[in-house]
Design goal:
Strand order of the largest sheet: 5-2-1-6-11-8-12
Radius of gyration: 18 Å
Mean pLDDT: 84
Structural class: alpha/beta
Oligomer: single chain
Distance between the termini: 36 Å
Length: 279
């Protein structure tokens, strides 16, 4: 797979988007692009177009000014595209299909705007990439307390209202959450969930995968070859309420293209920021 693109869905949450993009700015493998698929954010800041001097030339982007302000902070660090459409209810499938059409990548990685990647997230997805597989990865769920600590620390130095990013400060906090032993300890006190999925010790990880039939959280962390996605028509745009569109895509890839979902403990990990359930 020669080109990898990360597709990040977002809706009215520029603070979380800020943290997520900071995570991608810290990746160990920097050879990738990002497309933010915005399902109609407005955030009270209005809608307009701006020109950004990006990592690979100047781009004119149109959409939510609050999100564009966040993107502008990372535009020289990351190769970012942004696709937005008007808010007409839940249309995640439609905006993702538009985002994929804008991409020239061969390998597509789908995730969410509330999921901070492990520093090896991109590296792992690229290493696991297979034309016959749907690659998935673990999602460690942070509690409200841990999420508040994480976001509060970063916002002190990296507010969406400034152009300054304290990358060292972000890195120090981020490394705390990327320690599997620490997260396992925190999980005992119910400060996070699914920390066991971060384990990389081969025997333990393989045993857990077999016992749990591990395959990961599809919509928040899954990847596939672009030609398979295109062949089945992408996401089903008839899904206009929250949930189900990712499983539908997976089922069609399995039945029509004979692909096999494959997940590994400790590989391509994401950290899910706490939020109330969205209907």
């Amino acid at each position: 797979m020669s080109k990898t693109e990360i597709f990040i869905t977002t809706y009215n949450d520029p603070d979380y988007l800020n943290l997520v993009l900071a995570g991608y700015a810290h990746q160990s493998d920097k050879d990738f692009s990002i497309c933010i698929a915005d399902d109609g954010s407005c955030c009270g800041a209005g809608i307009n177009s701006i020109k950004l001097r990006c990592k690979k030339g100047t781009r004119e982007l149109y959409g939510c000014l609050a999100n564009l302000s966040v993107i502008s902070k990372y535009s020289k660090l990351l190769d970012i595209n942004y696709v937005w459409h008007e808010d007409k209810g839940f249309r995640r499938s439609e905006i993702l299909n538009k985002a994929v059409k804008s991409s020239v990548a061969d390998w597509l990685v789908f995730t969410d705007g509330d999921c901070i990647p492990h520093e090896n997230f991109v590296r792992d997805h690229k290493a696991l990439a297979s034309d016959t597989k749907i690659i998935t990865g673990p999602r460690v769920d942070l509690s409200l307390k841990l999420t508040d600590r994480f976001t509060g620390t970063i916002r002190k130095q990296s507010s969406i209202n400034t152009n300054k990013i304290d990358m060292k400060d972000f890195g120090n906090v981020r490394h705390t959450y990327q320690s599997a032993p620490l997260m396992l300890a925190l999980s005992i006190f119910k400060l996070c969930r699914k920390a066991e999925q971060m384990i990389t010790v081969p025997f333990i990880a393989q045993t857990y995968e077999k016992l749990k039939n591990f395959s990961g959280p599809y919509g928040a962390n899954m990847a596939m070859a672009k030609h398979h996605f295109v062949d089945i028509g992408g996401f089903n745009e008839n899904y206009i309420t929250y949930g189900g569109e990712d499983i539908d895509l997976l089922n069609r890839l399995v039945v029509t293209k004979k692909l096999k979902p494959l997940g590994h403990c400790g590989k391509a990990v994401i950290f899910h920021l706490f939020h109330e359930k969205r209907g």
